[in-house]
Amino acid sequence: MSEMGRSFWAENRRVASARTQELLGYRWRYPSYREGLRAILAAGG
């Protein structure tokens, strides 16, 4: 892996989905990447 790739993954942070939704007053269509990926694949994307 490149130095830039290692740097990205070393500093990657998770986002608190529940907190983000609360602040924005928004509900995610696909709460997890798995659900989103499943929808993309089902749509033929």
Topology of this structure?
Elements: H1 3-11, H2 17-24, H3 33-42
Commentary on this structure:
The chain is an all-alpha fold and 45 residues long. The protein has one domain. It has 3 helices and no strands. The chain has helices spanning 3-11, 17-24, 33-42. The protein is flat, with a radius of gyration of 15 Å. The two termini are 28 Å apart. The mean pLDDT is 85.
Give the integer mean of the pLDDT values.
85
Largest sheet at a glance?
A: none
Helix count, DSSP H or I runs of 4 or more residues: 3
Number of strand segments:
0
Alpha carbon gyration radius: 15 Å
Q: Helix-strand pattern, N to C?
A: HHH
Q: What distance lies between the first and last C-alpha atoms, to the nearest angstrom? A: 28 Å
User: Per DSSP, what share of the residues sits in E-state strands of 2 or more residues?
Assistant: under 5%
Tally of discrete structural domains: 1
**Range of helix content:** 55-70%
List low-pLDDT spans. Answer: none
Structural class by secondary-structure content: mainly alpha
Descriptive tags:
45 residues, 3 helices
Summarize, please.
With 45 residues, this protein is mainly alpha-helical. It is built from three helices and no strands. 60% of the residues lie in helices and 0% in strands.
